[in-house]
């Protein structure tokens, strides 16, 4: 990246023009430190998210860790909402830069050699693209998960709250279904509408409830229950809106029942299922 110093003449109009130009062209500009080391500097920047204007102060990114041998291309990105910078580590000896994570904007590529002891401007490639022409649907999150036709047996009775072991997402726009943990864990921050339904075969004067838990909370953030006046199949449902941060927040779907000490959640995907959609 070519780096130059511009010294305008001391005229008020030039000074004003340069101030405007600097804000437009200098936002998040990446460059080596004045005394180069294994970090790089980002100039101040700004982001507009809907009607929210976020001003971001100058940042120091790194330190970068050179590869043990060969070379590596790392990528510097900023968060679309906060402007906070981070490093995406590349693959050793690959000319392909690492992928841009969801919710991030690219700022720079940094070429690292095994012998790199400082990062200079010659090893930084400016790749700032601080606007995105992707259609709004690309940031949507839509998820439908179920037990995939397999009954969940051995469900303990009240007061035990039992997690529904969702095993399959037939719809997963935004890659938000955490199959390893049977949870909903979106990668984009925002408000989500959540709906959950559990089905059980009931006996007279028994009840079934559905609980939505945020980050494993013992109480849950939403609950709904239904009582059965006669032996029949019953569906208990709950719906709520919750904010999820797109990084650590997750939602578990749980059930609680007094039908049996070893009850069964019906596994049919039309009977027991979980829905989630990003709404804002």
Automatic annotation (TrEMBL):
InterPro entries: Tumour_necrosis_fac-like_dom (IPR008983). This is C1q domain-containing protein. It comes from Azospirillum argentinense.
């Amino acid at each position: 990246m070519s780096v130059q110093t511009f010294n305008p003449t001391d005229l008020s109009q030039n000074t004003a023009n340069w101030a405007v130009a600097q804000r437009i062209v200098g936002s998040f500009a990446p460059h080596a430190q004045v005394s180069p080391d294994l970090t790089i500097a980002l100039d101040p920047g700004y982001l507009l998210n809907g009607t929210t204007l976020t001003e971001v102060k100058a940042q120091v990114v790194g330190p970068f860790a050179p590869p043990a041998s060969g070379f590596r291309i790392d990528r510097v990105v900023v968060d679309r909402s906060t402007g906070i910078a981070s490093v995406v580590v590349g693959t050793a000896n690959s000319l392909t830069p690492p992928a841009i994570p969801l919710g991030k904007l690219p700022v720079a590529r940094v070429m690292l050699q095994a012998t790199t002891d400082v990062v200079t401007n010659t090893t930084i490639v400016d790749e700032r693209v601080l606007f995105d022409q992707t259609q709004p649907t690309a940031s949507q999150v839509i998820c439908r998960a179920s037990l995939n036709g397999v009954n969940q047996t051995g469900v303990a009775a009240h007061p035990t709250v039992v997690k529904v072991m969702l095993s399959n997402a037939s719809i997963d726009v935004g890659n938000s279904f955490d199959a390893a943990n049977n949870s909903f864990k979106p990668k984009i921050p925002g408000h989500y509408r959540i709906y959950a339904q559990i089905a059980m075969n009931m006996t007279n004067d028994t009840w079934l409830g559905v609980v939505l838990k945020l980050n494993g909370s013992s109480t849950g953030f939403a609950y709904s229950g239904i009582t059965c006046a006669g032996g029949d199949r019953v569906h208990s449902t709950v719906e709520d809106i919750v904010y999820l941060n797109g990084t650590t927040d997750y939602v578990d779907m749980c059930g609680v029942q007094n039908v049996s000490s070893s009850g069964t959640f019906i596994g049919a995907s039309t009977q027991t299922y979980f829905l989630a959609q990003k709404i804002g």
